[in-house]
Amino acid sequence: MLYKKKICFYLEIYLVACLIDYFSTAATYVEDRTGVKFGENILSFRAIFNDVRNSVDRVHYATKLKERVCENIEKYVHKDEQLPILLDRIRSHGAKTFLLTNSEYWYTDKLMAYLLTTDNDNNNPKRDWKSYFSYIVVDAQKPLFFAEGTTLRIIDPNTGSMKLGSYSGQLQQNEVYSGGSCEVFSKLIGSMGKDVLYVGDHIFGDIIKSKKQKAWRTMLVVPELNHELKVFHDKRNLFNTLEALDTTISDLLRSFDMTSNHGPDAVSRIKQKIQVKENTEIYH
User: Fold this and answer.
1) d(CA 12, CA 56)
2) How far is Cα 103 from Cα 156, in angstroms, rounded to an integer?
3) How far apart are CA 136 and CA 177, in angstroms?
4) Range of the structural domain that residue 31 is part of
5) In a domain, 141, yes or no
6) Residues 216 and 233 in one domain
7) What is the DSSP string of the chain?
8) pLDDT digits (tens, 9 = 90+) for 33-92
9) How distant, in Å, are the alpha carbons of 13, 14, 15, 200, 203 from that of 9?
10) pTM of the predicted protein model
11) CATH code of residue 160
12) How many distinct structural domains can be found in the chain?
């Protein structure tokens, strides 16, 4: 089963692969179909995956990781000077913008202040990052937000603490709210279903749940595609060659006598050629 969530996805896959490779090749362990054995002890591949998954979650939700990011925010967070311009341009055309995040207010405040603070004239005060959004919701607990949700509360931005009781009034600009649900949020902003375009980078927590349960229009942000497209463009001739060789193999196998005990020699030669092509042109 493929794991769908994207939180540290590539890191998790790498760690799982390294651990499985280690236990599968270690002399003290015997590989089984679903795991490895050490004497009477069995370590399943599923258990390895779950251990890595829980460990990454523990690190992700612990404040130490976020504190480390905030200590050196320029190193870990990419700042795009066009972002404030984009948000203002969206609102200038009559649309409303909202920020919906699982992060706590203190962390959201530090990141947004860094991302949306521009170099203004010294005579003008710095613009509050909250003014770029019509509505702000932190501690959303997605994907739970798109189901039953949690209690909607208002946050005091001066202290970062939540006020007592459940908030039931209209959402106000420059206010920060905690929790809530998609159903309550949609009613308070007066927009439902296809009226909302939701942009996120978490395919499970952001895209699938919001689209499937609440019919929001969605836009998935995949930064890794920039590199993939660059490689594809730079190595286009190589990919075309590999595709042609693969097609040749398919044609040979299609006309091959299936009663034979040996495969066609041409297929082996083409596979060797493909391997050489990949090693010489991609890795070099």
Assistant:
1) 8
2) 16
3) 6
4) 9-61
5) yes
6) no
7) ------TTHHHHHHHHHHHHHHHHH-TT-EE-SSEEEETTEEEEHHHHHHHHHHHHHHHHHSHHHHHHHHHTHHHHS---TTHHHHHHHHHHTT---EEE-SS-HHHHHHHHHHHH-----TTSPPPPGGGG-SEEEES--TTGGGTT----EEE-TTT-PBPSS---S---TT-EEE---HHHHHHHHT--GGG-EEEES-IIIIIIHHHHHH--EEEE--THHHHHHHHHHHTHHHHHHHHHHHHHHHHHHHTS-TT-SS--HHHHHHHHHHHHHHHHHT--
8) 888 888 888 899 999 999 998 888 787 777 788 899 999 999 999 999 999 999 999 999
9) 6, 9, 10, 15, 11
10) 0.69
11) 3.40.50.1000
12) 3
Pair (56, 109) in one structural domain: no
Q: Can you tell me which residue has the tokens 């203004």?
A: 120
- CA gap 109, 94 in Å, rounded: 25
